[in-house]
UniProtKB/TrEMBL annotation:
Pfam families: Ank_2. Residues 207-233 are annotated as: Disordered. Coiled coil: none annotated. SUPFAM superfamilies: Ankyrin repeat, Heat shock protein 70kD (HSP70), C-terminal subdomain. Residues 207-220 have a biased composition (Polar residues). This is Ankyrin repeat domain 45. The gene is ANKRD45. The keyword Transport does not apply. Keywords: ANK repeat. ANK repeats lie at residues 46-78, 79-111.
Length: 233
């Protein structure tokens, strides 16, 4: 990574100059406009870009601008550390929250097979641990909804096992939970767990049908057996 004297993007990050950063990227008259994107991607010897510097300093506003201009929130260093790992080390809870909201991978693993939550635990950054626990509970509900929707829209998995009413009921329940995710203000970890459990319990009778042979398959098997018997000497 270049020194601040030759990298105005880094200089803006170090000083928290959001307006100056915007000028670099958005003002064609700015002397650094043409090379701003290149400066954004410059890395130091271990593979940390300027985004990592914003994370280490806890500059949430700067971070959002960098992502807007093309920074990758899931890039990793030579040792597998992501920006989320970096924030967890330094304990910048609001910046960590910003990364999570922007879609940073909370399951990313470094060279020691540690997730950001594991790093936060190691450095006793309890507030960061709490935020990541919350994000994990939310993600678990989101992933379960997506998993169920994927099953219901796969003809090979539902054909002959689920009728139209089963499929509609399942999709409607998934939509309801998705709406809950979008519209519920300040849900807790407990809320996410309860919503997922409710969905699992409600769908259990329907999903159990997926473990049975498709309707008609047993009948066809019996017909084939009968036909074989009649043809026997």
């Amino acid at each position: 990574m270049s020194s601040p004297e030759v990298n105005p993007v880094l200089q803006c990050i170090l000083t928290g100059d959001t307006e100056g950063l915007q000028q670099c990227f958005e003002n064609p008259e700015d002397p650094n406009h043409e090379i701003a994107s290149q400066q954004l991607q410059e890395q130091d010897i271990v593979g940390r870009s300027n985004l990592f510097m914003a994370c280490m300093l806890g500059r949430s506003d700067i971070l959002q601008e960098l992502v807007k201009y093309g920074a990758d929130i899931n890039e990793v260093t030579s040792r597998g550390y992501s920006p989320l790992h970096s924030v967890a080390v330094w304990g910048h809870s609001e910046t960590l929250r910003t990364l999570v909201e922007l879609g940073a991978d909370i399951q990313a693993r470094n060279f020691q097979d540690e997730r950001p939550k594991d790093v936060a635990l190691r450095y006793m950054q309890t507030e960061c641990v709490d935020i990541l626990d919350w994000a994990e509970a939310k993600q678990a509900l989101q992933m379960y909804i997506s998993y169920i929707q994927g099953i219901i829209t796969d003809p090979e998995k539902v054909q002959g096992r689920l009728n139209k009413e089963d499929r509609n009921t399942t999709m409607n329940l998934c939509h309801l939970k998705s709406d809950w995710l979008l519209n519920t203000k300040n849900p807790s970890i407990k809320d996410f767990i309860e919503q997922k459990s409710q969905l699992e319990n409600t769908l259990q009778p329907i999903l159990s049908k997926l473990n049975t042979p498709p309707s008609g398959s047993l009948k066809n098997t019996k017909l084939r057996v009968s036909g074989s018997s009649r043809g026997s000497p």
